[in-house]
Description:
The chain is of the alpha+beta class.
Amino acid sequence: xxxxxxxxxxxxxxxxxxxxxxxxxxxxxxxxxxxxxxxxxxxxxxxxxxxxxxxxxxxxxxxxxxxxxxxxxxxxxxxxxxxxxxxxxxxxxxxxxxxxxxxxxxxxxxxxxxxxxxxxxxxxxxxxxxxxxxxx
Length: 136
């Protein structure tokens, strides 16, 4: 699944739009990490416990968003964004959202084609088949 924050994918044509997809989680902070982070915040700097929790939350919501897009038949998500907010004193909401689409790489000679899209068409691959592209 190709995920981009742009509204278009260079070298690709959006062939179908399946609508908005999202992944959502609400997490509570565990008291131990919260206390440790509180002590660390006195000295300034990064709070590794909170960084880890936010990173894990983002990975979780990305996976949920990708699953929803795949269920609709999409092979890409455009205009992806994250939203994070506090709920109450100890809860954090993390949301990933974007537009599920089906994209087709442009062939050599087509206006807007890129080296990547030409390569994909020559190999008979779709964007979700690209080497190094992992499924969440």
